[in-house]
Amino acid sequence: MIRITKLSIAGALASASLCAPAVAQDDITTIKPEIAPKNVSGAEEAEMMAALQQMFQAEPLTAEQEARLPEARAVVVKVLPEGFYGQMMGDMMDSIMQPLFGMVTGPLGARGLIERKVGLEGENLPDLTDEQSEQIVDLLDPKAEQRAEQIQGVLTSFMTDMFARLEPPMRDGLTNAYAVRFSERELGDITAFFATPTGARYASESMAVFADPQVMSAMMQSVPAMLGSLPEMAGELEAAAAELPEARGYDDLSSAERSRLAGLLDLSEVELRQKMAAAAEAEAMADTSRED
């Protein structure tokens, strides 16, 4: 399951300028959207978000610093060109999600399906070859790979769009921070691509500036609007999941498939039926508990 909380994303943005969503999963073949927690009212959430924004308020710029904003903006446009942030996060998401979802047909994906659909856990799980794992996944969830590709596409698209929207306030915050940290002469030297000693100073400051209060303030001011799109993402995930059938239970398997699955798991067909029935009941109870 993917569990996304608004405050967890806000906290992640507060702690780093580059971040990826926190993802927790029962297994990599079960991905369900959930915006949590349900026991927090809208008023309470708004109050918490306001408090979080207040924590990252930056000092107003002095008149001298404001006068340096045009030079600072010229530097920032080179450091953070338009479209760079969203594209970078999209590429980062792809690099993270492709290996993760690529495991759905391997041993880890098979173990998750066996635990959930058959009820075998821990020491009762057989040692499986890659070929056996692929066979089990194909039997229990023939659409596992397509499901993973759908979810990856939704998540990558959403994160790319979300960070593209974060880019303008990030650029504004960096502009303010550069106006605070560097003189007009230094900003001119930086624009000339580090051709002077001032350029060396810029190189040493370039990473630290991402934690500058001006940057964090600008980022946190954008969080409420950005978080407002989370329900939309949940709806897209639900729509994507609805296009494919759920992983199969005992009644969905043919007699030949039941026999084949039982053989792969070293179970009798009676044991397979009993364990899959118990697993289905446990899964239904867990879903009910999460909904409550």
TrEMBL record:
DUF2059 domain ranges (all copies): 170-223
InterPro entries linked to this entry: DUF2059 (IPR018637)
Keyword Signal attributed: yes
Keyword set, alphabetical order: Signal
Protein origin, superkingdom: Bacteria
One Pfam entry name: DUF2059
Signal peptide: 1-24
Protein's UniProt name: DUF2059 domain-containing protein
Organism expressing this protein natively: Qipengyuania atrilutea
